[in-house]
User: Fold these one by one.
Assistant:
Number 1:
Amino acid sequence: MTIHFVDGSSIDSASGLGSNAGDILQTTSISTLTSDHSTSSNGSYSDTGLSASITPSATSSKVIVIAVLDFEGIGDRDRRLMTSIHRGNVQSSTQLARANGGQYRTGGDNSISHGTHTFWYLDSPSTTSSTTYKVGLMSLDGSTVKLLGSSSTNRTYMYLQEVKG
């Protein structure tokens, strides 16, 4: 069977896979958060313990970071949070992408906000060394926020793919 591409090229056998820019060269195993991680730290990221590592085969390779983060904010009227993807340690200078969630000025005592952030981030680490990506969590108003983990269901997880550059 021959696979034909828009640019007019084709692949007749599996031996041609991985030779074109944009080909997926490797995919890591899924890393899951097996228990809840919570913080009420306002203004600094908490390392959730969710991470994945990959060793690119070439410095020109790209890495796609795929993360699905199931979150909850607990508090009175304000329960806002920020999730983030980092290369290396979880700190502001290593942040690659972030998203805000939760509620502001809604609800009453002990209200709960639920949501999910999904990241598809294309990184250019320019290395052939093992590279680790981590997930951070921050409370934006001092309320308790958490990423939901589970030992039986993949609620919060991430994996990586190397893409030929």
Number 2:
Amino acid sequence: MLENQFNIISKFRGELMGIAILGVCLLHAFAWTGMGDSILCKVISPFARIAFTEGFLFLSGFGLYYSFSKNDDSRAFYKKRFNRVLLPYMMMGLPFFLYGMIGGEVSFAKFLLKITALYFWLFGNDGMWYISMSVALYAIFPFVYKFIFDNKQEKSIILRTLFLVVACIALCWALYMCAPTYYAKLEIGIAKTPMFFIGMLVGHYSQNNKTFSWKHMLWGGVLLCLTF
């Protein structure tokens, strides 16, 4: 048995989020300055995909597990997420979306879709895909939590997480095969969803001070291989 290594994620979660934010800013800076095809950007991008983009969803699932395991009141959970994520987004976006609507660039219907973060699901990424993905994942989180962790047996928890990862990959593949154009619009968000569920699993290990053996490491490798 190896000692529990997951507590370090909880201890430095804020720092990890900060690194992820800086990484995203760096990659966007490359794009804005026309350096997206530079050698430096190509070297950084593979690491950025794991550490920054998927890393956000991983840390989100990790943190939500901690929060919900302490208070599993779904109503309180939804209220807290609305106040912390969707409400600030709506307040910050309102002036810009209104300006676009007044200027005739944004219709009223599109205004409603953008202000509620639903635009991504119909028309693809407008720069706010992460907000749209977060809102969707928050909406299903209490149900996913109960599905994974209602059965306290460790093997069941791992297998149910694996099932969700495989189901996500299968749904993405089915959408790609049946509606490739629509899939291309959503790929930036939905293809990364498995990392959210893996974050929940690691959160469980961290909070409960679980140790892990080579079998757990093998399961973790399977999950990550399926994700990438």
